[in-house]
Write the structure tokens for this entry.
Amino acid sequence: MNKADLVNALKNHNGFTRYEAEKIVDIFFGTMADALARGERVEIRGLGSIFVKEYKSYVGRNPKTGEPVSVKPKKLPFFRCGKELKERVDF
């Protein structure tokens, strides 16, 4: 399922216009992305939580040449699945 599928599902199940459904989906994901950018955790009951993990810098290796390469510190979003979703998927 992609963003267009979500828009169509919202449109078909609730009688919204395509424009209204797109706006709702954009606001939903935009608000989540803004919260993550501020370092906040996003938790959706029944689905899971998304939070930002911080990784320190480290020395890696170039797989082609084997040379050591310095990797800068970074922050990445991380999703942790909720109990209800695990149970629903593992029917």
